[in-house]
Design brief:
142 residues; two-stranded parallel sheet; two-stranded parallel ribbon; mainly alpha; 4 strands
């Protein structure tokens, strides 16, 4: 949230791009995304610093996208996707070349790999909790 707050301070309208599930899966691997696009969009929209969300945002930011959406600044945190499975060109190369890229120092150092490891470590606990919840719901509807 702090990163989004600082990004919002860079301009007067913050649009956050959310990649499709297929794009995330293609670039990060078969175990991603952890949350569906709808869940990610709702999480981002729930932040008071976010004015709008770009659904199915392209992985790489293009000149056409910048011109069409009239983007004046492209912001990204210092902790970002470093373990992508596909080694492609920098998705922020165009905004960097145009001088509109801003890197915001991330206060949190938690990476997607660490989140994934935490979830895998607690998989059994979560599974048991879901089974109990399903059983309780089933008895409620009887």
């Amino acid at each position: 949230v702090a990163l989004l707050e600082r990004a919002h301070e860079l301009g007067d309208y913050l649009v956050v791009g959310v990649h499709s599930d297929a794009a995330v899966n293609r670039h990060r691997g078969s175990n991603y995304p952890i949350m569906s696009m709808q869940e990610r969009v709702l999480s981002v929209l729930g932040c008071r610093y976010v004015d709008d969300v770009l659904l199915d945002a392209p992985w790489a930011i293009t000149r056409e996208m910048i011109a069409t959406l009239q983007i004046s600044i492209v912001a990204r945190g210092t902790v970002h996707d470093s373990g992508a499975t596909l080694k492609l060109d920098d998705p922020h190369a165009v905004p960097k070349s145009l001088g509109i890229h801003r890197e915001i120092a991330s206060r949190e150092t938690l990476s997607i790999a660490e989140i994934s490891a935490r979830l895998q470590a607690r998989q059994h606990e979560v599974s048991e909790r879901q089974k109990l919840k399903a059983k309780q719901e089933e008895s409620w509807y009887r």
